[in-house]
Amino acid sequence: TGTMTAVGEANAYESVEQAKIVEPKHIVARNVPPKPSEESQKPEKPKEPEEKKEES
After folding, report:
1. What pLDDT band is residue 14 in, cutting at 50, 70 and 90?
2. Nearest-CA neighbor of 27 among 51, 44, 9?
3. What is the DSSP secondary structure assignment for residue 10, as one 8-state letter?
4. CB–CB of 19/13 below 8 Å?
5. Distant-in-sequence contacts of 30-39, Cβ < 8 A, 24+ apart
6. Which of 16, 49, 14, 50 is CA-nearest to residue 31?
7. Taking 80 as the threshold, does the pLDDT of residue 46 lie above it?
8. Burial, 1: exposed, middle or buried (Cβ in 10 Å; 0-12, 13-18, 19+)?
């Protein structure tokens, strides 16, 4: 029966350029959004509704 606590750190900058100058390169690289892959750019085919079988 302990307490649930969390500790965090956040840095706020006036501009992206300032953050890139101050922060270490590995931190900046870690926070870059992933590039979209070719598979994720393919348009998805809409699913056709399945036909319902009527029971008589």
Report:
1. very high
2. 9
3. -
4. yes
5. none
6. 16
7. no
8. exposed
Q: Which two tokens stand for residue 41?
A: 């750019």
How far is 3 from 30, CA to CA, in rounded Å?
31
Both structure tokens of 26: 């590995």
The answer to whether residues 13 and 22 touch, using CB atoms and an 8 Å cutoff, is yes
Task: Compute the radius of gyration of the chain from its Cα atoms.
Answer: 24
DSSP 8-state class, residue 16: H
Q: What is the pTM of this model?
A: 0.44
- What angle is formed at CA 48 by the lines to CA 46 and CA 49, rounded to 5 degrees? 130
